[in-house]
Write a structure and sequence with these properties.
By secondary structure, this protein is an alpha/beta fold. It has 13 helices and 19 strands. The structure holds pyridoxal-5'-phosphate (PLP).
Length: 405
């Protein structure tokens, strides 16, 4: 497509882009299934998938077909008109979980913003104007716009953006007592990731989530799950909350935030809410130009139908088990892996090696993954990854750890 050399593309990009990311030394060109290819033709087994985004892999024929036909029909239309595409996507989200109402967005952070406004408005209406406090968690990540950054613990290290939203308190993840000590009459909502992604692939204990539900019921507080990374099939259930059962069944949040895998690469997100909570966002209190457009909703419907198709989620669970078993074998034989954790196809691996060095060496060996937390190797492959591709991933990880030893 481009006549420029990879070096020119990288240098010129650095010259025109705000430097919020360090660029890798290769230029990505295209992808197919679970593989990505750089502009020199090198093939990578893509276990990053845009950080848990390309749930159906790259260039999935059903997505290509949906985008092609929908762009020819209708891409843009004011939110005040109903469309069959938006209804279909919303109905799938409602029919397959505990939620009644949907608000579409274009990204994860926008889903979180909608949920923040929704919960605060609900609490204002229900409990009075002083009820605006939010409990979030240490090592949580919810996004980079002001509201979501305010409930992200990294705000402590970025004082230059202050003032953030006030009334936000950070509790210890998986520690119900720490949450209880922060609850008061002005607590409006608790926001939690069922698996802390950026924080290092740390799953919530189901009994911790159950305790949060109990506290929210007792004190009339809105419970919000941020399922942006963990939802939409990644944990082996459609919604992430459905993966956390105790004897009393699944622990249902009042609101969940979605994005990433929901569009498999196409920017689309949503806030889904139980009726009482969703209804708090009344006419004129929130909105978006692009959110819920026919194109993004057509893609979301295609992706979610595929995730819900027969055997799809069983496959995710089977591959997850296979990968974790394989990683444990490598751990036993190499002694270089210090921890393996996560859930579904959201797997974290701690090793003795510097994460940057490990990622670079994996990349040299034709494998893409990402960093989470301070030093965790994050594996978030497309959900369609095959057993053979999982074996190939294990072989590359094993070989790379041996080369670094
Ligand atoms: C749990 C979680 N919440 C929110 C976000 C923000 O999503 P986005 O980057 O689409 O705004 C992310 C992104 O990594 C995430 O992992």
């Amino acid at each position: 497509m481009s006549k420029k050399t990879p070096q020119e593309i990288i240098e010129q990009t650095e010259n025109v882009l705000v430097k919020t990311y360090n660029l890798q030394p290769v230029v990505m060109d295209h992808g197919k299934g679970c593989y990505s290819y750089d502009s020199a033709g090198k093939k990578y087994l893509d276990f990053a998938a845009g950080i848990a985004v390309a749930s159906l892999g790259h260039a999935h024929p059903k997505i290509v077909k949906t985008i092609t036909s929908q762009t020819k029909r209708l891409m843009a239309c004011q939110a005040s008109f109903a469309t069959a595409e938006r209804l279909e996507a919303a109905q799938i989200l409602v029919d397959n979980g505990c939620f009644d109402l949907v608000y579409f967005s274009n990204s994860g952070t926008e889903s979180v913003e909608a949920a923040l406004k929704c919960a605060r408005k609900w609490a204002y209406d229900k409990k009075g104007k002083n009820c605006h406090e939010i409990i979030a968690f240490k090592n949580a990540f919810h996004g980079r716009t002001y509201g979501s950054a305010s409930v992200t613990s990294k705000r402590e290290t970025q004082p230059f953006f202050a003032p953030y939203l006030d009334g936000v308190h950070f509790a210890e993840f998986n520690n119900p007592l720490s949450v209880e000590s922060l609850i008061n009459d002005n607590t409006a909502a608790i926001i939690v990731e069922p698996v802390q992604g950026e924080g290092g692939l740390v799953p919530a204990n189901p009994f911790f989530l159950k305790d949060l539900r109990r506290m929210c019921d007792k004190h009339n507080i809105c419970l919000r799950f941020d399922e942006i990374q963990a939802g939409m099939g990644r944990l082996g259930t459609f919604y992430a909350y459905q993966s956390f059962e105790t004897d009393d069944g699944a622990i249902e949040p009042d609101i969940a935030c979605l994005a990433k895998g929901m569009g498999s690469g196409f920017p689309v997100g949503a806030m889904v809410a139980k009726r009482e909570f969703g209804e708090a966002l009344s006419l004129g209190t929130h909105g978006t130009t692009y959110g819920g457009n026919p194109l993004s909703c057509a893609v979301a419907a295609t992706v979610t139908k595929e995730i819900l198709s027969d055997g799809f989620l069983d496959h995710v669970n089977k591959i997850s088990e296979h990968l974790v078993d394989g990683l444990r074998k490598i751990q036993c034989s190499s002694n270089k892996i210090t921890d393996i954790r996560g859930k579904g196809l959201m797997i974290g691996v701690d090793t003795e090696f510097d994460i940057k060095v490990l990622l670079k060496k994996l990349q040299d060996n034709g494998f893409m993954a990402t960093q989470a937390g301070k030093s965790t190797l994050r594996l978030t492959p497309p959900l369609i990854v095959s057993l053979e591709e999982a074996d190939e991933a294990l072989a590359i990880i094993d070989k790379t750890l041996k080369e670094l030893s």
